[in-house]
């Protein structure tokens, strides 16, 4: 059962990337999502249920989880700096131009890191 839950959690993330990814990243995620969903016989209802569990982190005592909170803040700050660089870019934000840019990939990786650290914070706060 635990393995199935991990598969569903992974599908939630892949679905999010399939919905808001850019260009080839989005297309790849869409194919991967459909393939894994079929392979593991996971229903849309299971995925929606797993994705619809909002957790309010505003009430978390960040002092208790200062290490994770610091990581989250550091990633958020770096992501903001990369976003500022991207915003100042003279290109027109096409897939061909952006996918060749290090800032584009940095932002993508930082968003994934942010989500992973945020989930670690939520897990630590709800378990302890």
UniProtKB/TrEMBL annotation:
The name this protein goes by in its record: DUF2786 domain-containing protein
């Amino acid at each position: 059962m635990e393995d199935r839950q991990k598969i569903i959690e992974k599908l939630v993330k892949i679905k999010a990337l399939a919905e808001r990814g850019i260009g080839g990243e989005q297309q790849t995620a869409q194919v991967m999502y459909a393939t894994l969903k079929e392979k593991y016989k996971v229903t849309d209802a299971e995925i929606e249920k797993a994705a619809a569990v909002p957790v309010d982190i505003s009430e978390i005592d960040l002092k208790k989880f200062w290490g994770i909170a610091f990581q989250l803040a550091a990633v958020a700050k770096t992501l903001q700096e990369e976003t500022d660089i991207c915003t100042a870019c003279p290109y027109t934000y096409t897939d061909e131009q952006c996918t060749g840019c290090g800032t584009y990939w940095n932002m993508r990786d930082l968003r994934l890191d942010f989500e992973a650290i945020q989930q670690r914070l939520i897990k630590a706060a709800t378990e302890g």
